[in-house]
Amino acid sequence: MPNLVVVNHPLVQHKLTLMRMKQTPVAEFRRLVREVALLLGYEITRDLPLATADIETPLMPMQAPLLAGKKVCLVSILRAGNGLLEGMLDLMPSARVGHIGLYRDPATLQPVEYYYKVPQDVADRPVIIVDPMLATANSAVAAVSRVKRDGVKDIKLACLLAAPEGVKRMNDAHPDVTVFTAAVDQGLNDHGYILPGLGDAGDRIYGTR
Length: 209
Ligand code: PRP
Ligand code: URA
Hints:
This protein is α/β, with parallel strands linked by helices. Helices cover about 35% and strands about 30% of the residues.
């Protein structure tokens, strides 16, 4: 599949398995999401531009690399996206943050937008949309379309788990967006849940049901 990066690191795979286990308690699930976000964030930011700065170490002057350009804007798809957001912010504490409130109508599986707030200069920034689950991809496709309406051009998507159907749909709808995920699972059940998956990510992060 083009524009798909599976982060196949042993630490990521181990933590993902712990998250899939139904007996994993809320506090541990939340901590694991945050840790995996950090590792996904490391991969997803690999192509950030660098510039050379003149600095002085305690011993001598040197030219050294520093991040260049506008800071990344992380856009969290509420509510489960906030779990990933925390870990990404550990890695990029100066990142700007946007939120898009979307929930899946359980009957139609179509996303319903209830909130949208992003930095006013978001169009000038690289944007990483974060949401643990790419199932039908209806939510992520809508989120990408929404930020594109604001002029954003450089967009990546970070998730924990993707269904093949969702990866294809994202690729068809937004071929310019690369999806970073910890795993691609078997497929979707009749209710649009990823199999084998990890269940409802929002419920598992927040202990709701
Ligand atoms: C979940 C998940 C994604 C969406 C994925 O959110 O966090 O946003 O479903 O499904 P899709 O790819 O089929 O659109 P949900 O709608 O359950 O809302 P929540 O985060 O508030 O729990
Ligand atoms: N949303 C979730 O939280 N889990 C799924 O498996 C599908 C959508």
